[in-house]
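Reviewers asked in the last cycle whether our approach scales beyond single polypeptides. To address this, we selected a multi-component target totalling 301 residues and predicted its structure end to end. The input consisted of the following lines:
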Amino acid sequence: MSIKQNGGVFGRNPTFNDVVIEGTITADLATAGALMDSELTNIAAVKALDQGVATTDSPEFAGIKLGGSGADNTISDFETGNWTPTFTGSSADPTSVSQFVDARYTKVGRAVHCVLHTYMSAFTGGSGDVRVALPFASNSGTKQSGAMGRRAGWTATAAPSAWDIQASASYLTLLTADSADARDNVNITNQYSTLTTYDEVYISFTYFTGS
Amino acid sequence: MALTKVITEDKIEIVGEHKHVQIRTCTKVLEDGVELSSGYHRHVVTAGQDYSSESTEVQAICAVVHTPEVVAAYAASQEVAEVIAPVEGE
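The resulting structure, written as C-alpha cells, was:
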C-alpha cells in the first residue's frame, strides 16, 4: 500500500498497527523538545547519553526515580562542599574565636554525610552546652545520635563519647557519659565551663534533613 | 589570560517549620570567563540567630521569615529537645 496524500489514504486517516520503514527517517531533534531536556536537543548529546560516554554537556534533572515511581524512589538532590562548623553555646556564644576547620559534606537526597575535624585554638566567653554548626538543618521529626571518633585534648570528665542532633536543629551537641564508668549513660552535654583550647572534635557522621 | 574569582550566594532556601535559612555560597575561578573550578560552602541561619553579618539579601529574608513567633517556637522546641528523660531502672 502506498500513501499518496498528506498522511491519508484517499483523503482518509487510517490507523496502522505496525509500520515498517524501508530506508531512512530524517528528524530534527529540536522539534522533540517537548519530550526532552533542553540540553539534549543536539545529536551529539543524545548519542552520548545513549552510549553512556562523557561529554562536555551537563544535563540537569529535577529528580531521578530508581526502582519505582513514588517519591520514596526519587533522588532529587546531590551536592558536595564544605561548611564552617562554628562553635556556639546554648546560653551564650564564645567570642574572639580562632578555629581550625576541616569540614566537608556530601548530600545525597535527605542524607548528609559529613567529615569534621575542628578545634578552637583560642576563645573567650561562651556558656551552656557546646554546639557545633551543621551545613544543613536536621529533619523536624527525628532525633539523631552517633559515636565520636578520635578525640584529643579533653579533660577526663568532659571527653565526649557521642554526639546528638535534635529535631529541626542546625547544630550538633557533644555528649559525655554520666561518669568515668563506660557502662553509664551517655547523655551529659559538654559545657563551656569544662572546654579548653585545642579540645578536638573529630567525627565522621551521617544525619538526615527534611528534604 | 585573566584569572578571576567570583563568589555568589547561588542558593538560599527556607526550610522547615522553624524557617531555617540555608545559604549556599559558590566560589568559581574563571580564566578569561571560562570556569576552571568551583566549590560550595554551606551555612544555616536559624530563627533568633544574629544575621547582621549576612548579605543584604539574606538579611531581608531573615527579617521576613524569622518573626517573633517563629523565634519563640524554635527556642521552645530546642528547650524541650534538651530535656533527656531518665530511663527506668538506670
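Chain A is about 5% helix and 35% strand. We regard this as preliminary and will revisit it once experimental data from Aim 1 are available.
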